[in-house]
Amino acid sequence: MAFVLKDRVKDTTTTTGTGSITLSGTAPIGYVSFLAAIGNSNNTYYTITAGSEWEVGIGTLSSNTTLSRDTVLSSSNAGSLVNFSAGTKDVFVTYPAGRSVFLNTDSSITIGNSLLLLSSTGAVTSPSLADAVGYKGIPPNTQSGAYTFAPGDGGEHIYSTNSGAQTITVPTNGSVTLPVGFSVTVINNGTTAITFTTTGTTVYKAGTSAAWASGGTLAVRGLVTWIKVATDTWFVSGTGLS
Hints:
Layout: E1 10-13, E2 21-22, H1 34-37, E3 43-50, E4 53-62, E5 66-75, E6 89-93, E7 101-103, E8 109-111, E9 117-118, E10 124-125, E11 141-143, E12 147-148, E13 157-160, E14 166-169, E15 183-188, E16 194-197, E17 202-205, E18 217-230, E19 233-241
Parallel strand pairs: 11-13, 12-14, 13-15, 14-16, 17-19
Antiparallel strand pairs: 1-6, 2-5, 3-4, 3-6, 4-5, 7-8, 9-10, 15-18, 16-18, 18-19
């Protein structure tokens, strides 16, 4: 059994009631049948609709044309199984809003309200950040020598394991284009203080009114977060910063 999503999968049914439906087995012109696209014993998202009656859910195809209604995600019956009346209904594969992942107009990613992680055996599992390595479950960017903030560092952390002098450059927008709102955390677990080069940018150390000069340092076992608030303006805050 597998979960399958395909484009332009559609059929009809005349089944009534709240049980499994029997598909006609013949897709309209321009569409593909459930059997050809989804395959027996596989799951998919479905929509059944007829007039004011509609249902969106997860079903399993069996016996070529039988679609079970295993889980109802939304419906005209307040989210429960619909007791379909007589008549022909359209049945098609859909992508439910509550299970979707999409890119917003501001380029942020939205995950639907019913996200589940499934193991290969079908058992529901939960992600555990306690078992993950890195900041917010993302593996750290480990550095021990000279380094410059890069676009891929956004939302991550740079983990220093230096054994000698180390310089990290906070780039100007002209040298490395990083979006306003970009943030990165730096952790010094090395043996030497990290020196930050900020030439060409304006940096404010949180809690102070004066700009922070290039050449500031992060002590061993220190941790700081850098946030870009304007084209070449940054705020920095943390422990061990001087």
